[in-house]
Each structure stands twice: as structure tokens, then as C-alpha cells.
Amino acid sequence: MENLLINRPEFQLSQIDFIIRILVSIGIGAIIGLEREHSAIAEKTPSFAGIRTFVFAVLLGFIGGLFYFILTPWAFMGVLSSVVVLTILSYYITASKGDIGATTEFSLLISFFLGTLTFLGFLDIALIITVFVVVMLSIKLPLHEIVGKISIEELYDFIRFVVIALLIFPFLPNKNFGPYNIINPHEIGWVVILTSGLGFIGYILMKFLGAKKGMLLSGIIGGLISSTAVTWILAKKSKENETLSSNCAIAILSASSIMVLRVLIWTFIFNVNLFYDLYPSILLIFLTAIGITLYFYFKQKGIDNLDPSIRKDKPLDLQGAIVFALIYVTILLVVNYSHENLGEKGFLLSSAIAGFSDIDAITITISKLAGPNLAHQTALNALLIAILANTIIKLSISICTGSKTLRKLLFIGYGMIVFTILSLLILLNF
């Protein structure tokens, strides 16, 4: 039986666990201390805490947790109080010399609690917090530079978004009503937040990374959530500023490439057998999408970043997000009407209609039905039709709301994807 250093009903600690946890504690203190000491040397400013001090602070938190169980909870409070007093004295001394920053002092207190978390066995939590702390400490200059470039309009739009996301959205009723019992204010609010948030992220990325890199990254991130929303946002952006059209097209196609991968992920999670039947076809569609995306991307390699003086787009487009949410609700109503009135004979048609609004929902539904209730061939056809419909609706959005250049590029890009899907449907069924 393994020897236990602490054997209480509420807490047990073996010798090997003790060694592992104390080594992790020392590592945490060394990492944070290394960053603080390096920062002090780089900025040529004195610092009261370096590698050794931070290691000791983490170990004090570790020892305080140990004292809590082998002595008394008051022992932990005594150790914590000592660290707090020393930190306050250090801040008083440095502040009296004109340095009023308290980053190192707060880092030391956090390190103490990280030591306690490590002792208690919450290694994952302690390491995640450590990584976050080190990242925040190391990006001081870039962070100050970013804050200095934010305009008053961007700040106000960010505040508006936070108010909507944190003060309004959580209180929307999360229950269904209306025709077919599908109208859910909470879900509609989520669509508005998602769409406006993606647009805001894209705006910020484009501002600080340039039009080319910022657009591409926002497309990839948006593709993980909703390629249709990305198409809506960026197509409107291309119409507002023709200069961005090629960058918008690349971002839209990259989002659609990620969307195809999401289909594979959902089928793998919900129906592995269907996944093995599906992945050759989906992989071919993905290779087509990513191929045309990369072609456009490298073709535009020589284009300079957008001059900020000719920017016309708004940081936060709430009006456009609300319009998109209304379109989303309309499509949901059409989908449910199709399911309700066409039955199983209209399954493929229903899949096509469902693909107009959301590829994830129809993919999960088909994955769950495939096998006992639905032949794999029918399921495969339904998924391909859903992807085809989703591609067509995104092309339609681009035609209606995008610029002339964007329409031309997406006719080529989406045209190749549509051709690939239609070819697969013909080969698989004839």
C-alpha cells in the first residue's frame, strides 16, 4: 500500500504526489520569476522579485496549504498575511520612488495561490493560470501599443457589444414559441451576438494585422462557427469598400473550407460508421475549397495592406446582424414547414432547405438517423445536398450584397465547389 503523508477524510497525499506537486510548484515560480527578472533587465528598472523570490512565494503557498491540513487553517492565514504584508511594503517603497505600477506585486500574490492550488492537486488549473499570467506579463508593450491605436468610436462599439452580450443576452427567455414552436429569443440573440461579434473581430484583426492577414484569420475563426455569417459580413464589407474585395473573397472561401471540416467532425462524433462512408467525398470537397482559397491567397501576395485613411466599414454592425437573424428565423420556419408537410419523401428536399441556414444542425440530425432509420447512401446524399445548398445560399448572399470583384472571384471559387459536389452526387448515384 502506498505511504500517505496526509491521510484525512477530506484530503490524502502520497509521497510520490508530494514530490510531483512540489516540483510543479517550483517550475511555476521559476517561469513567472524568469519573465519578471528578464523584464526588469530589459527595461533597466529595479525589481524586488526575481526568479528566487517567485519560487519562494509559490513554495510559501504550497507550505501554507500543507499547514492547513497538518496544523490548523489559521496557519495558512498566517502565511498568507505575511506574504501580503511584505508585498504591500514592497509596493510602498517602489511607489515612493515614483514607480506606481503594481504588476509584479500582484504576480507575486497570484504565485502564492498557485502554490496552494498545486499542493491541493489542481495541477491543470494552476498550469493554465500560469500560462495566462506569463502571457499577460510578456505582452506589456504590444498591449500598450494596441490600446494607443484604439479610436473613441471603436471603444464605444466595444462597450456596446459588451453591454449586449453580458447585460441583455443572458436575460432573453430561453424557450420556444410561435409557429412550429421554434422561435427562441435566446437563440436569436445568440445569432445577433455571433454575427456582430465576428464582424467586430474581423475589423480588429484587419486593423492590426493588415487587410490580408486579418481577413484570412477572421475567415478561419468565423468558419469554426458559421461560414454563412462570415459570408454575410464580409460580402457587405466588400460592397462598402471595393479595395477589400479580394481579401474578403479569400476569407469567405477559407471559412467555407473550415465548414466542410466541421461536417466530418460532427459525423465522427455522432456516427463513426457514416464517417467512414462519408470522408472520401467530404475530403475531396475540402481539398477543392482549400485549393482555390490558397490559389487566390498566393495570387494576392503582392498586394499592400489597406491604407487606414480609406476605411469605410464600421467596427460593430448591429443593424446588419439583426437583419441576418431575421433571415435565419425565416429559413427555420421554411425548414420546419418542409419537415411537417413533406414527411420522409421530402427528406432530401428538407436537407437542402436546412442547409440554407445551418450545416451543423442538419449534419447532426442525419448522423443520428443514419443506420437503423436511414440508409447510409441516403444519408450521404442528404449531407452532400445540404452542403450544396449551403454553398449556393452563400454564393447568393455574395451576389446580392457583395461588390463586383467579390462576385467574380466567388463565382470561380464556389463554382468549383458546386461542380465537385454535383460530380460526386452523379458518381455516387448512377
Automatic annotation (TrEMBL):
Annotated DUF4010 domain ranges read 193-402
- Any idea where the MgtC/SapB/SrpB/YhiD N-terminal domain is? 22-145
Q: Which Pfam families does this chain map to? A: DUF4010, MgtC
Write down the InterPro entries for this protein, in alphabetical order.
DUF4010 (IPR025105), MgtC_SapB_SrpB_YhiD_N (IPR049177)
Q: Specify the superkingdom.
A: Bacteria
Q: Which keywords describe this protein according to UniProt?
A: Membrane, Transmembrane, Transmembrane helix
Q: Which ranges does the record mark as transmembrane? A: 18-35, 47-68, 74-94, 106-138, 158-176, 188-209, 215-235, 247-272, 278-298, 318-339, 379-397, 409-428
Q: What is this protein called?
A: MgtC/SapB family protein
| Species per Swiss-Prot/TrEMBL record | Flavobacterium luminosum
Its ancestry begins with: Bacteria, Pseudomonadati, Bacteroidota, Flavobacteriia, Flavobacteriales
